[in-house]
Amino acid sequence: MTLTQPFVTEVDFASGVFSPRRGVYQRRLSDMIGMVADPEAAARILESEGDRLIYEVHTVELPVEEGQIPHCTTRILPGTIGGECHMTKGHYHARREQGEVYFGLSGRGLLLLQTAEGETSELEMTAGSAAYVPPYWAHRTVNIGAEDFVFFSVWEARAGHDYGTIERDGFRKLVVLRDGEAVVVDNPKYA
What we know:
- The chain is mainly β.
- Helices cover 11% and strands 41% of the residues.
- It has a 6-stranded antiparallel β-sheet with strand order 3-4-5-13-8-11. The chain has a 3-stranded antiparallel β-sheet with strand order 10-9-12, with no helix packed on it.
- It is globular and about 50 Å long.
């Protein structure tokens, strides 16, 4: 096992930015076309507005070995694509038996969860709420408010991420805006 030195990271709750700055990656509209229910709407937005930012993740990189606890913040910008609220790609853990914890820092969000057997769940998150993602549940977060939705997450290093299953099959549920309210609906394209 790697002997990792103790460290402190300051977290800006409104933006999710780490100090000192650590790893950062962004997901833009062009990264999400295969994930949204209406890829034609995404293509129209790309052409008219450009490749807008959907979300960004600030990470603390640690060795992928037993005992390590990686963590990150995610900031999802408000907005819709063809009526569907901005969201993360979503994933299962590569080691399905691993859980994860999300802690709301600012804004309003919805945590969508599903099992391979078809069970689904939705948990609303706000600043100060802690949501538990149990083992075997895929999870995706959605911004359901008018401001950035920012949350902190922590997981066991060996959990890994399986984005491919969601990219291939999609999520059973979508979150869309109807009369200004976020509503969870069935995904008509779910494989």
